[in-house]
Design brief:
Layout (H helix, E strand, L loop, with lengths): L4 H9 L15 H16 L9 E5 H6 L2 H13 L5 E5 L1
Parallel strand pairs: 1-2
Helix pairs in contact: 1-2
């Protein structure tokens, strides 16, 4: 699904929790970061990191060990703590 800028702004405010992935792309890295924060807060709540519902992975680590992503998904599935997100940092 590809959204126009207007549709995307609405989606970031009220993301569909049934979707399995989201790619936010743009020329302005700061705007992309702000939209990512908005979406994660809408999906997971303000305390997602404290509640261990957000996993951050460095891009270099993920390139070296792609299975790392699947391992994180599997470990989160066992916890049954509601919605979760994995974030790759550059």
């Amino acid at each position: 699904m590809k959204l126009s800028a207007r549709e995307a702004n609405g989606y970031f405010a009220r993301p569909d929790a049934d979707k399995t992935g989201l790619l936010i792309y743009g020329a302005d890295a700061m705007r992309v970061a702000l939209k990512r924060q908005q979406t994660l807060k809408s999906l997971l709540g303000a305390n997602a990191e404290e509640e261990m519902r957000l996993t951050r992975m460095a891009a270099g680590d993920l390139r070296k060990d792609p299975a790392m992503l699947l391992d994180a998904v599997k470990s989160r599935r066992r916890c049954r703590i509601g919605p979760r997100a994995m974030r790759r940092s550059s």
